[in-house]
Amino acid sequence: MKSIRSKLLIFFFIFIILFQVVSISIFISSKKLSKGYEDSFQRFLLLNTLSQLTEELSSQTKIIATDYDTTDMDKYFSLIQETKENQEKLFTLFNENDYQIKNYYNLIGTFILESKMTVGFVLRDDIEQYADHIDETIHAAGYIQEYTLDLVDSELTTYQAFYDNMQQRNHYFLYFIIFLFITSISLAIFFVLWFSTGITKPIKKLASAATEVSEGKLSGKPVHIKTKDELQLLGQTFNDMRSNISHLVQEIKEQSELDLLLQEMELKHLQNQINPHFLFNTLNTVSKMAYLEDAHETTELINSIAALFRYSLGDINRSVSLAEEVDVIKDYFLIQKHRFSDRVNISYNIDENCLHTRVPRLTLQPLIENSFIHGIEDKEEGGTIILNIKQVNDYVIIEIIDNGIGIDEKRLKQIQTYNDKEHESVGHSTGIGLANVTRRLQLYYKTDNLISIESELGEGTRVKLVLPKKQSLLSSTS
Length: 478
Fold this sequence. Notes:
The chain is α+β, with helices and mostly antiparallel strands. It has helices at residues 4-66, 70-88, 90-93, 99-124, 127-214, 230-272, 276-292, 295-312, 322-340, 364-376, 409-416, 434-445, 473-477, and strands spanning 319-321, 344-350, 358-360, 383-392, 395-402, 451-456, 460-468.
């Protein structure tokens, strides 16, 4: 991940390197031009120096030949030495393979040789010989002057081309400066827009998402930031924060709904602890049994009633095991068996390994009571209720099956929506209906689709519960 600071430093160094490269290029080009100009100037200066030296040396040779004086010899030898030194510079400043320079070099050498021979014969006082050599010396000096003019002319021609090239370079340099200026401005604008967009666009996304959160919209789309810097980390953190807030709000809503359901149930418990109709029928049964039989069955019946009331009035906030739910069903059916005799029957198919599973209190008894009241109580010949409890993989499957009068299709759809609370029938003993049981299961297990109902009019009803065996910590301690 690159930080915004590192990006700024990279952009800064890119521009610095770019301008350094341009500056070095300009410096090297200027250096080449300056060197070319300086070399040309040095060549002109050397040719001019050689021309002057040959002229002075020729004059000094004439002076020695006409009026010999030892004082003139020092100046002569000094001129000879200086001429040789400048002669050697020719191959330094000029191309040594140039035949004109070679001829010029040899011509100067011939001139120096003729001058020395002239002086030598003057010292021997050989008039005939030094007269011939002084003529050669004068002629060589003349040739040198002419050759120098030719070389200067050739050098001027070369310098003119160099000057024209330098002028052209100046024009190109001007165009390059203009191009560099426009390119630098364009690149600067591009990088500024690109970099600022990379910062402002994610900030706008975050600001928009933050506005949604402030308005209570916690389920918006996640903020996707592609820049690999602190803003991407900020976006991910914001998404996590919004998700956590959404989950927290959902948990608070579910907890509030659960608390409301529990309060509603507690109120119903207070209102229906002893339902008059149920109490009347039960006491009437107890009265008949006490009249017709000894007290053993009556005692058993009264114990079942007490156990049922005791369980119904227990702490609704605490979960219980399936074993406790099955026990209260047995007490409930014992009461109904004494009321309806052979008209009602119940069959148990229970896997003992499932009885330790925790469920919300009063889960199965209201469902059994619904099957009894709405399924077989009004059926003249009575009926049978089957309770199946088994384990399939990581789930406990509970089925409550009756062969009662069944439910018509329209009413079944209303029940399956779990929203028909206004007309929902509730049990005589607890005042708890199907919708209440369903919602408490959903809040307890934190998932939907736990209950399914199948029914056919005249054939009976099947209520199926699919409960996760492995519960969350929250569920197991609620």
